[in-house]
């Protein structure tokens, strides 16, 4: 089954336009670790989404390398652990403004099932029609909107991925992009956390019969709009804004990965932090700000960033992050109030959560 010292980055005057990385402003950074998170390489706390009220959704990996979910209270800083009862592992993917959480869990036979956790902590399990029942198959819920609709994927008995939209009342609609392949590992993939709007728009990517990934936007009326940024040989979608702007990354013919923003009007904006060797995109918030990470061209260290709607970049580094390969800071999500959450990887390869207020 399928979601990482404050510094100044000074650029010359010729970069003082939209591509400029701004000096990092003074903010309070709160570090946190979920109780029970492991402290070995690859383990730890990984926040990936922040709501408008400051609630943070994420996962933590324990000392046995088992995945669990958490929801962090913005007022008290306390954690609600998210574990579907009796599951082998739990993967939360989406939360709405009412703090209902959706995602999937793996049973003891290795089959995935969708779940809905109510704001009061009640769990409901569900399976999309057509989902396979073998190990490595099943239902993978991805996001939930204010109206209680849930979007996600299911893997059928042939290993093919399909998208779905589930109403609050439990009715399902299949979401299959035209051109999606029908072989194992191919099909339609809906993005998690910010892949579904309150108007029912869905974003994701589909893999064709040649194994090539393309982006899509499915509007609330069910109309599909497939897309690929100019020059793309591989497109991977990360999120969807309230105004149907789709963001993600793409690879060009030289296999260089760049971020992109595909506007509702069909225009493409490249998201590429200056002096980076790779720019990743993790999320887009209600204002259109994009959170992500990049690797610098000097040390190769990972840094977080936020790109505001005007095109300016702000660097995000957490003191204590490691400086080795695969270490550093990742900004995973922001909200319209400017709060940022993500994770940093220390010199031992352990993940830790942070909130930049």
Brief summary:
The protein is an all-beta fold. Helices cover 0% and strands 46% of the residues. The chain has strands spanning 21-22, 29-32, 44-50, 56-61, 67-72, 79-82, 89-95, 101-106, 112-117, 123-126, 138-144, 150-155, 161-166, 172-175, 187-190, 202-207, 213-218, 224-227, 234-240, 246-251, 257-262, 268-271, 276-284, 290-296, 302-307, 313-316, 328-334, 340-345, 351-356.
The average pLDDT is 91
SS class: mainly beta
What proportion of the residues is helical, as a percent range? under 10%
By DSSP (H or I, 4+ residues per run), the number of helices equals 0
What letter string, H or E per element, gives the SSE order?
A: EEEEEEEEEEEEEEEEEEEEEEEEEEEEE
In this structure, how is the largest beta sheet organized?
5 strands, mixed
DSSP summary, beta strand count: 29
Q: Shape, please?
A: globular
What separation lies between the terminal Cα atoms? 33 Å
Strand content: over 45%
- Spans where pLDDT lies below 50 across 5 or more residues: 1-24
The radius of gyration computed from the alpha-carbon positions, rounded to a whole number of angstroms, is 19 Å
Strand order of the largest sheet: 1-26-25-24-23
């Amino acid at each position: 089954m399928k979601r990482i010292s404050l510094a100044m980055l000074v650029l010359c005057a010729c970069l003082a336009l939209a591509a400029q990385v701004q000096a990092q402003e003074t903010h309070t950074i709160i570090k946190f670790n979920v109780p029970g998170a492991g402290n070995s390489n690859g383990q730890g706390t990984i926040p990936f989404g922040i709501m408008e009220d400051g609630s943070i959704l994420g996962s933590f990996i324990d000392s046995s390398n088992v995945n669990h979910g958490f929801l962090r209270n913005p007022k008290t800083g306390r954690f609600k652990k998210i574990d579907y009862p009796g599951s082998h592992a739990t993967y939360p993917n989406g939360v709405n403004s009412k703090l209902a959480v959706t995602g999937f869990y793996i049973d003891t036979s290795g089959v995935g099932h969708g779940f809905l956790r109510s704001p009061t902590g009640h769990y409901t399990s569900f399976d999309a029609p057509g989902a396979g029942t073998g190990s490595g198959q099943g239902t993978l819920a991805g996001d939930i909107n204010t109206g209680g609709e849930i979007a996600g994927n299911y893997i059928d008995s042939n290993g093919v991925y399909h998208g779905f939209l589930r109403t609050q009342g439990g009715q399902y609609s299949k979401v299959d992009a035209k051109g999606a392949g029908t072989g194992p590992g191919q099909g339609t993939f809906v993005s998690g956390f910010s892949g579904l709007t309150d108007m029912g728009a869905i974003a994701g990517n589909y893999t064709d019969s040649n194994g090539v990934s393309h982006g899509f936007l499915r509007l609330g009326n069910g109309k599909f709009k497939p897309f690929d940024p100019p020059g793309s040989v591989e497109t991977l979608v990360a999120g969807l804004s309230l105004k149907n702007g789709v963001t993600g990354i793409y690879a060009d013919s030289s296999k260089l990965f760049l971020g992109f923003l595909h506007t509702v009007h069909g225009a493409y904006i490249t998201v590429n932090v200056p002096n980076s060797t790779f720019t990743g995109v993790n999320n887009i918030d209600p204002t259109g700000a994009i959170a992500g990470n990049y690797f610098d061209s000097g040390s190769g260290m990972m840094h977080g960033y936020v790109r505001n709607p005007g095109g300016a970049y702000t660097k995000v580094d957490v003191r204590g992050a490691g400086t080795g390969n695969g270490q550093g800071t990742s900004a995973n999500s922001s909200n319209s109030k400017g709060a940022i959450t993500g994770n940093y990887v220390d010199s031992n390869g352990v993940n830790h959560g942070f909130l930049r207020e």
